[in-house]
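Run log, item B.
One chain of 981 residues. Sequence copied directly from the ordering sheet:
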Amino acid sequence: MPQPHRTNEHDLVLPSGFDDIVRVIDRYVVDRRAGIPPRRQSARHRLPALLLTREPAADTTAEGTTAAGLAAADTVRGEPDPALSALVHVYHHRLVRLSTGETGHLASLAPHALVDEELLACDHPGEDAEGQDGPHVRLLDRVARQLRVTMPDGSGTLRLTEFDACLSVLRAAIAAGDVTDERRALRDRIYDKYAWKFGFASEVGALGDELGARHWSAITKLVTTPLAWLWRWSYGVRIDRGARFRWVGGMLDEPGRSFLNAAMSLRDAHLRSRAQGRADQGAPADAGAPAASARSAASAVSARDEAVVRQVLLTALIHDLARAARPPVWSVRRPRRRWPFVLLLPTVGGDDSPSRKLLNSFSAVSEDVGTCPLLVLGAATADLPPYAVGLPRPGIPSQGSRHSTHGTTAQAVTSLLAAGASGQPVEAVRAVPLSRVPDNGTSAERPVVQRTVRSRERRASDWLRPAVAAVAVLAVVAAGLFQAVRAGETHSRAETRAVPRAADTWCPRVGTGERVGITDGSDTCELAHGLYASELRALEARLGRQNADVDRTRPYRTLVFFAPLSVGSTSRRTVPTGFQMLRGALLAQKEVNDLNLKSQMPIRLLVANAGEYFTFGSHGGLNTKNHTGVDVARMIVDRIHRDHIAGVIGLTQSRPESLQAAIELDAQGVTVLGTGVSGQPMVEGDSPVSYFQLSAPDARVARIMASFARRSPRLAALTKIAPGHTAPAAVLVFDPHDTYFSADLKKRFTDAYGSAGPVYPVPYGESGNDSQTPSVAAGICALIRRTDGFVLYAGRSSVMYDLFYYLQSDKQCRTHQGRVAVLAESAAPNLVLHPELMAREYGSLSLFYNQFSLPDAKGPFVTNFRNSYEVSSDSDAAAGYDAVKVFFQVMNEISVTDPQFTPSAVVTFLQSTGVTDFVGESGIMTFGKGHKYPVNKEVDIREITEDGTRITDLTCGAVAAKAAPVTRWGPSGNFLCPEDD
């Protein structure tokens, strides 16, 4: 491998603190999973790319008028500096050392590759196949070659199956013809170059010649030629239809599963980009404006094609490296391959820099490949890439702290690499600003001569793993033979155990530790798990008692309460909102079954747990997060006839996964009645015909919240009107990745708020890195301090506690004149049930929250609910209660004419007849017959006051206590309520 020009390290002045950062990087070069206990190691992990920058000058300040500007101030990105290139070269020299053996060769300590743009620019290939590659393909080919050559001694050979196959496609010299011929030519090239050949026919033939048999060769050809053809055909099928290369079609937007079709599209894109590159080189400089415009458009297409080719090759390389970094458990090389593959980019320059383009591709694909054992270290020598995220802003050091600024930088790098190694989501590229202060001279040589990276040497104990694996295989085979001898006895015993346990069939345990599935409260399925297991366990016991009272020898129907009812073993998320709804549903079941009507349908209730985030509630389609075989919606479908299921209630969350579950149930004609669901996509677009909900959608909620924010005297007392506007500024906290709820509500509130007041969006996700929450809270408080506005919380209730904790702890929020107003669409359940917590724990905040009903505090529902569960009721409990009552009313009407009705009869009834003026605890509701949700559904906005009590500031819609819908709100009723179209 050609060595780049070596900088004299002894003459190089290093920045202060660089030695600390090098030690951090060394640790993860030795072991990419450093510091992660084996039992907590995730199979999917990704290390962020580290881009060295220079600290901004002392007189440089950053001011911004938007949330994005303030977010930039919360992190330090630094500035580019061409001198940083030498630091990457310094680290490159740490990865090799002179062997201590007799050979005295240069030994690699970790597989690595250095992108030398000077060598790439001096490369002038001929017109052979590789000469047509283009610089972007040659660069990645050089990287792959260096990674192969620098594999440490004793760690085996690096095989890049996917990368070589994609590279072979680009270099294939195929004559233009019909599609079938081109596909066959591509297949044959890959087979001839990389496949293990079925090639013993020649050896057998030679043996026949030695034996002297005249017809021997003809016989062997007759036998082996069909076998060789069959092997070639099966290899082509595996290449074309196998799962390994399906991702290529996805990246190229190529429909179908065929890799060869996608490979043809990839090759076409490559040929177009190379043809345009040659055309640009030969284009006359004095071409007219039309020609220049056309060439510019063609160049844009060529740049896109080149980027696609680069991303495909890089993705294939990362896939191969992920497999190489984790050999099979029985491999002797598994304990030796703990290092990552190191990619060094000394010159990450402007947009046209090859290293910059490669880093662009890494940023685009690394988040989608799952496991990425590639550690990228680069130096920003020109403009910083926009996607490079700075390190978190260091907090104020405590009194007596000895950590300097560069020590804080090393700690931040440690946190980032540890998060990536543990499988937490991290940004693809992080800017690491280095100090402008030079080193004091005592440690300038340390990165070169001290603490060299030490790769793991070969040990005799490495053979223990394959030996144990071989013994285990022999033991399994012996046990199988032993069992075969006693087949008669074991078969008779198996007959008595033929029925699987319910826990294995209907509530399997998943990777998060949760049990998801279905229970009736009396089987062996216990869905309780995580922080709030005791609450769900008590509800399951009540469920079992109430279902035991249903006479199943007479006609009855079953409803399924389907929602996320648990959290993972390591999750600290708040109590699921479904608990209150399930309590309401259980109370309604007991009340309707205790009735003595002339004609009524007894109700049995099942509880189905979809797992945290509804991950396991569905499979495929809109659900892209469930990679297991568990599908709770499918379980419900499988029990329709066995349990006489008439419908499903709950869901409780607006997510693609919950909508996919409704779609799966719709395919079997099962009605789903959503409670607590407000995302607009749930009732539009892909929403199935059998889906309805009792709550108002975001379109109505957003208009009411905007009206409240513009006109509420209570909110106005805590805010100030923004200059040039008529309403206070809104700091809108939302999750940009939560498109079914949070991002949808953010867009609709912004549209409804209009020009009344400025809106400052602040991203805050439920699945993001927890370490980012303090910086998010700091940005929000800075905006509140500057604008005297309010916080519009459009995030999930499960992560409200995290944000409130850091808002309460932030100096700017604590010292703000007056409490900080927070208007939330979805508040944390415990804050609603226990409002005194706001005054006790979050005294700097004043919470206004939305809910869909106000149950009568002195009515029988509230009284019975408190007596049954010893907790207060809320709108969620009323929604679960009303859902059962609605089904009870509908089923009673259907059973008069059709006692043996099926689930599809409920769908037909709601579509044709609908529910009119149903008086429930969550309001008067009319829906169905063209309406998926109640028209002018009641919406209330309540406030938790400074002394921890609740008051109602707004009520709009069809309220149970009034004959006509409420159309005005405010102290004197002088504000109009938004109404549905």
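Observations after the first pass:
- The chain has a mean pLDDT of 83.
- Residues 619 and 690 are 19 Å apart (CA to CA).
Flagged for discussion on Thursday.
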